Amino acid sequence: MSDTVDPARGPRPAVVALDVGGTFVKWLVADERGVLRQGSVETRAAAGPASAFAVVLDTVDTALSAVPATHRPVGVGVAVPGTVDERRGVCVHSENLGWRDLPVAQRLREHTGLAVGFGHDVRSGATAEARLGAGREVPDQVYVSVGTGLAAALLLDGRMVSSGGYAGEIGHGGALDGAPCVCGGRGCAETVASAAAIARRYTAASGVAVDGARDVLARARAGEDVARRVWDDAVEVLSSLVADLVRVTGVPHVVIGGGLVHAGEDLLGPLRDQVRARLTVHPDPRIVPAALGGTAGSWGAALLGWEASGADLGPIVAAYGDAARRPA
Amino acid sequence: MSDTVDPARGPRPAVVALDVGGTFVKWLVADERGVLRQGSVETRAAAGPASAFAVVLDTVDTALSAVPATHRPVGVGVAVPGTVDERRGVCVHSENLGWRDLPVAQRLREHTGLAVGFGHDVRSGATAEARLGAGREVPDQVYVSVGTGLAAALLLDGRMVSSGGYAGEIGHGGALDGAPCVCGGRGCAETVASAAAIARRYTAASGVAVDGARDVLARARAGEDVARRVWDDAVEVLSSLVADLVRVTGVPHVVIGGGLVHAGEDLLGPLRDQVRARLTVHPDPRIVPAALGGTAGSWGAALLGWEASGADLGPIVAAYGDAARRPA
Fold it and tell me: Which regions form coiled coils (chains A, B) (predicted)?
């Protein structure tokens, strides 16, 4: 029944959503009830900024041609990494994609003729968690994404904060010494506490190649000293970051997302204890794992598409929540 | 002309505003064009929480009876220190006043029968700076008040952030060691970088009593080593705080207020350099001194009163701006 055209009402509305990463572009087609089609393609970022943007346009076309005949596309939602100014619709800078001052929203509007919602990958993920996942009904919260990189999104008084794209860029800066960072600084949190840094620091200290932070954690659990030290350093830096986020924003709720959250209580247990030790006048925040996993960015992009189309988000959020929280 | 009743329109509207501090309650009566009457009374906080609140009610009565016969009071604005939840109208906790979970807004409404605007002293000062002073026309900014205490206010996307009263409480927490702080923590920023801490640390290190941070700065300027070290420590801690504020919120504009800003370029010069050194991916923020000085809290309280009364703030802000920025 859901895949037939209602002759009285015509084809049903659908959106196309893209979560653009440095390695893959994940796409999906969704109607108000949930996902209809999905897939992913390689970003080919190494081939240059223009090539990466061409892949984005091709992927939008692929997704649009995957919209079933029973549906008609009403909007496009796209989330990208880097410094993203949602208000202007511009990717100010993306290290991963090589983009600089790229008017993504306008280019996509011209390409598709559709309403376009454009956002930042971490803020899109945070929006999805806040509406569908681990942050529902909480007006003041931060979302911390710990994966290859490290960044936060601030939802304050129910509104996502952007500050021209620079809000939540906690992975870089703050320190005056420490290990050199890709950003040109030293001792940035991303050099110690990202999933990539955990693997890199372990290999640098032990000479042993590992399969990511998960492998380092397994070695720490097995009692290996170097692995334990590297893991504990990461948790300590993360604790300091989360405590700073809470001190500055005052939020009572912190959602931890990104690949590292798969460590579960090995991460969250000591993180809660150490954040608590660093807070004195602030109430202890709830620190909870993200509920949507790797799909948060795509769900967020779909919501961006619906919002741009002018749809009423209420029933969509209700329907998506059930689908999004279902274990994959 | 301004002090006569227009027979066609009746008495003109006025508000009563209180800036409640631990030592003095400053009050004023203002109409849409500026201040009509003002004064201050001792808070007598040492006599206990109930006494301090009785002083507030008395001061409201004093101010109301000072409203000229040509005017009629339409609102009351009150700013208080501590943890203030504007949404609920409650002072959650004020160390200085001894208040805990005091429903200030409701009590004042019952006492006066007028519309009441209730706020936090630092956020009120920040609102005044943002509308009348050094933060005009800037939607994303932070205000840092460095005086007896140390706290910040966050204006993001044109809206003041509160998070139940805990936003911007950067003076406490964050560290795990250092000097003991009144909050029960160790190494809090307030133990090094507040105006009070600068005087206290100098006296502890030198055995010499001083007349506040101003005196310490004068000794540092004169080449005294201990004073220089104490001053530089304070600037370093402040730089770290301001850099954290910018990293978390992404704002391009920082207003420094409170007593310490009278140090001028001795504070702002090294602060700008050190904040810049700590930022890598964020653009260097503008760091500017507050424009309204010690009157920011009172102007902010007056705006709270007008807002509560339902008045159109546009013309009031325009008229107040000229008055507020005039050197006292």
Answer: none
Residues A279 and A195 in one domain: yes
Strand blocks (E) in A149-209: 150-156, 159-160
Number of residues assigned to chain A: 328
Determine, yes or no, domain membership for B2.
Answer: no
**What does the pLDDT look like over A151-204, one tens digit per residue?**
999 999 999 999 999 999 999 999 999 999 988 999 999 999 999 999 999 999
Q: Are residues A64 and A178 in the same domain?
A: no
Structure token pair of residue B63: 């101010």
**Torsion of Cα atoms, B187 then B193 then B197 then B201, to 10°:** 80
> Does the residue A5 lie in any domain?
no
CA distances from A209 to A202, A205, A217, B127, B210 (A): 8, 10, 14, 54, 59
CA A249 vs. chain centroid, Å, equals: 20
Which is nearest to A260 in space by CA: A94, A144, A107? Answer: A144
What ipTM does this complex have? 0.93
Q: A194-204 pLDDT, tens per residue? A: 999 999 999 99
Verify that A311 and A202 share a domain, yes or no.
no
- Within 10 angstroms of residue B111's Cβ, the number of other Cβ atoms is 15
Residues A309 and A284 in one domain: no
Domain match, B177 and B232 both = yes
Residue A3 lies in a domain: no
Q: What is the CATH number of the domain that holds A86?
A: 3.30.420.40
Among residues B26, B5, B7, the alpha carbon closest in space to that of B295 is found at B26
Q: Which domain holds residue B40?
A: 12-126+293-325
Q: Which of B164, B244, B251 sits opposite A174 (nearest CB)?
A: B244
Q: Report the gap between the CA of B154 and the closest CA in chain A (Å).
A: 8
From the list A230, A293, A300, A226, the residue with the least C-alpha distance to A260 is A293
Nearest to B281 among A156, A169, A249 (CB): A169
**Residue the block writes with tokens 């995957």:** A66
Is A161 an interface residue toward B (CB < 8 Å)? Answer: yes
